[in-house]
């Protein structure tokens, strides 16, 4: 029983937004240059888990259950995410009895990755772009699809699943129509998977063909989490520009500058992609009597402290002080060393690795977490997670010329392990390119 008027709910799921329990529309007055056009922001952080993606998490799950594709406890979910879908899905999974694995980019704000782990997601951090890059073999999307081939996993696939836009057709659209009394003339949203703009747009145009639908995207190389540049939009099958009336590009700095104004002048705690969507709408919507614009604000600023520090260094005097030259330089050099190590002759393919094991009696060190190691590892490998390598001298060979093969999932972490062991003086250390995944793809046996 949900008492929306009294806001009393028997379960948190009762707070999922719908026509009877819409997320708020708030009028914008200080940051919009309009004399006639009325502009409203739709605050999606009023969803139970803090973002617009709670809508699709609920609908993707319900749809897959209805189709008999998943059932609580019978399947694990795997979904590549830029953060918010993972957060919504993990909480829905907690409520409905599903574990959720989230392959994602290690460039996603730490706040989101930390909270995902706190929510209980099985987070896999990958060397990928902010938004999973098109065709990146080791990217979040590819890894999720690979994992979904395993019998006990299912991928709801927000980038292809029509249940994504359908969730907005069934909720966001009807909410806006009712909240504006059917007077909405323009609708704008940022483009991520494009589920929001496509689903909501379809509903509003069915109600009134004259409603203008505007999709807003960032430029290439942006750092606005959750949305995609034109190149990155290739990765989603829900980008339907022929269904929109305009697609507008907004520069990174424009979005962050307007984000600051929204907080300071409108007193709305909007996140960067909200400001981007508004900035794009202001470029596309004319100032005319009778115009009513609604812009989706997907989430709030609290998950983007690290982005704020990067874009507004002056707000942090201490942080503004140039970091001791060492640390930043070291970090950059280290990243480069690992990058080169992964393509160097110390990164070996399966055949050479097998020759090391069979021919040279190499010690195989698996540097992944215990869980990953327990799941499947190269026969005979010992498990020393990378983070514990430093304090595991007792488990390392006394003979510094002993052949050692470092292994991880795909060859990233093992390159770090290899470099570390070389620094400890081991002369014959190699890293397995492609890692355990390549080993399995070769049809080679694993333990346990
Ligand atoms: C912060 C943020 N903004 C915008 C979007 C874009 O929404 P959609 O995927 O429906 O296009 C997302 C999607 O993940 C998001 O997390």
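Q: What amino acid sequence fits the structure above?
A:
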């Amino acid at each position: 029983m949900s008492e929306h008027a009294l806001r009393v709910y028997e379960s948190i799921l009762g707070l999922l937004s719908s026509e009877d329990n819409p997320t708020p529309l708030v009028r914008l007055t200080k940051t919009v240059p309009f004399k006639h056009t009325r502009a409203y922001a739709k605050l999606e952080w009023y969803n139970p888990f803090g973002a617009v993606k709670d809508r699709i998490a609920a609908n993707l799950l319900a749809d897959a259950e209805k189709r008999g594709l998943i059932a609580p406890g019978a399947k694990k979910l795997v979904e590549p995410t830029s953060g918010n879908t993972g957060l919504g899905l993990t909480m829905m999974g907690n409520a409905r009895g599903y574990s959720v694995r989230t392959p994602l980019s290690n460039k996603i704000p730490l706040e989101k990755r930390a909270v995902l782990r706190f929510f209980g997601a099985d987070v896999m951090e990958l060397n990928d772009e902010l938004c999973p890059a098109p065709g990146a073999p080791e990217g979040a999307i590819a890894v999720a699809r690979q994992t979904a081939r395993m019998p006990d996993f299912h991928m709801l696939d927000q980038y292809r699943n029509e249940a994504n836009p359908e969730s907005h057709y069934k909720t966001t659209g009807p909410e806006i129509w009712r909240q504006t009394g059917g007077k909405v003339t323009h609708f704008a949203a940022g483009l991520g998977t494009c589920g929001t703009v496509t689903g909501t747009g379809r509903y509003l145009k069915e109600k009134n063909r004259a409603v203008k639908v505007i999709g807003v995207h960032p430029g290439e190389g942006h750092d606005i989490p959750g949305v995609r540049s034109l190149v990155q939009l290739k990765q989603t099958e829900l980008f339907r520009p022929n269904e929109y009336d305009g697609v507008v590009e907004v520069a990174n700095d424009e979005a962050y500058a307007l984000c600051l104004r929204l907080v300071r002048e409108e007193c709305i705690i909007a996140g960067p992609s909200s400001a981007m969507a508004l900035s794009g709408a202001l470029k596309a919507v004319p100032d005319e009597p009778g115009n009513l614009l609604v812009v989706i604000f997907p989430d709030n600023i609290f998950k983007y402290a690290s982005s704020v520090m990067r874009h507004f260094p002056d707000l942090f005097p201490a942080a503004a002080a140039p970091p001791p030259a060492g640390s930043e330089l070291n970090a950059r050099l280290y990243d480069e060393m690992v990058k080169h190590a992964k393509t160097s002759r110390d990164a070996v393919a399966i055949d050479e690795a097998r020759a090391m094991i069979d021919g040279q009696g190499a010690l195989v060190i698996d540097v992944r977490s215990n869980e990953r190691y327990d799941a499947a590892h190269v026969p005979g490998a010992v498990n020393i997670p990378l983070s514990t390598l430093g304090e595991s001298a007792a488990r390392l060979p006394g003979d510094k010329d002993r052949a050692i093969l470092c292994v991880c999932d795909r060859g990233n972490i093992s390159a770090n392990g290899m470099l570390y062991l070389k620094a400890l003086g081991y002369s014959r250390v190699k890293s397995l390119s492609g890692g355990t995944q390549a080993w399995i793809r070769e049809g080679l046996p694993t333990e346990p």
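Q: And what stands out in the fold?
A: Residues 51, 53, 82, 84-85, 190-196, 225-227, 271, 273, 298-299 surround pyridoxal-5'-phosphate (CB under 6 Å).
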